[in-house]
Amino acid sequence: MNQTFALPDTFAAANKAGVESAIAFANLMFAGMERYTPLTVNAARDTFDEVATAAKHLVAVKTPQELSELQAGLAQPAIDRSVAYAREAYDIAASNQRALIKHFDAQVADLNKNLASMLDGATKNAPAGSEMAFAAIKQVMGAANAAYESVNKATLQAADLAENNLKAAAEFGGKTVAAAKAKKGA
Known about the structure:
Helix content is 94%, strand content 0%. The protein is mainly alpha-helical. α1 runs antiparallel to α2 and α2 runs antiparallel to α3 (131-185).
């Protein structure tokens, strides 16, 4: 193939791949929003309904004892709803994060493959004595890939830690509320 015509084809292919990647990224983001929006709207609707019901009960309160009972009855559902919302929102975010990481990993792999191919082609057509320059470029690429893998691994570990912390907090909150109920009942 003529090198003069190969270069524009390479750039055209790279541009096409870039557009396809941007569209795939946007689709991933919209998929996350499509899952998060109903969660938020439903949570707002449920909260509004519960506040409206609580307001109706509040105006019917006649004694401090009734007020105390009303307050106690409102706390637990609000806590449960908040924990469930946080858990579902986190699940959506974690799922989106995994999809984005998978997308970017594929993009990095394609980029590395294309760069290596271009570098091999350039090495074959390079003048004698330029081997050290190409070796240095390959070494830099290897170091950049290692750095990417290290950051990627740290990001995944941080996501796992956050997920474990959220689960522990939800479990602790449930145990705390159950203990408070048991103490109140005693």
